[in-house]
Amino acid sequence: MVDPTAQSSKDELICVGLVGSARGLKGELRVKSFTADASALASYGPLKDETGKKVFELKVTGKHKEQLVVRIKGINDRTAAEALNGQKLYIERKLLPKPQEDEFYFSDLQGLDAELLDGTPFGRVIEANDFGGGPFIEVKTINHGTVLVPFTKAAVPLVDVAAGRLVIDLPLGLLEPGDPEPQDGQDEGPDGGGYDD
């Protein structure tokens, strides 16, 4: 099991949530929680922005699909709520529990060297995230540009934070090229979809 949290490089702040769209007219917001127990997001106390200066006091009022519905102190209408769309919510690392075995804060993965199963250097982890489709790591590879690797036990069978490395078992097709993008001036078909007759 993975605790999908992300990080800010500033003052050991860990990203525990991401504000989504407004809900209703009275300032409620949808929030994606990155904590292992999503409903615990508001129990950590006031959350901060990435600078650590702006504070957000949350009260969970419900759930909507995979997201929490919250009220944030001082946000009382839809306009104010919409202004927070995309705001990341952080907490000081020291306030979070120590990860269990096979759990990792995404901040611990950033900067790790990535190797293949046979020990071949593959690249370096530049970011880890979960936007709702499951956790993944973004790896800047030595020979293949930047690739997204699912952060699963099958695709990443070994993570050794102390040694500064992780091992990737490349999923089938991960490095295969996709269809080329249409070039300017090419016929993209009647709907602009790029299909031929």
UniProtKB/TrEMBL annotation:
InterPro entries: PRC_barrel-like_sf, PRC_RimM, RimM, RimM_N, RimM_N_sf, Transl_B-barrel_sf. Residues 174-197 are annotated as: Disordered. One of its GO terms (molecular function) is ribosome binding. It is found in: Cytoplasm. Residues 107-174 form the Ribosome maturation factor RimM PRC barrel domain. Its main location: cytoplasm. Gene3D superfamilies: PRC-barrel domain, RimM. It holds the Pfam family PRC_RimM. Keywords: Chaperone, Cytoplasm, Ribosome biogenesis, rRNA processing. GO terms for biological process: ribosomal small subunit biogenesis; rRNA processing. Residues 178-197 have a biased composition (Acidic residues). Signal peptide: none annotated. The keyword Nuclease does not apply. GO terms for cellular component: cytoplasm; ribosome. Residues 15-94 form the RimM N-terminal domain. Belongs to the RimM family. The PRC barrel domain binds ribosomal protein uS19. An accessory protein needed during the final step in the assembly of 30S ribosomal subunit, possibly for assembly of the head region. Essential for efficient processing of 16S rRNA. May be needed both before and after RbfA during the maturation of 16S rRNA. It has affinity for free ribosomal 30S subunits but not for 70S ribosomes. Binds ribosomal protein uS19. This is Ribosome maturation factor RimM. The gene is rimM.
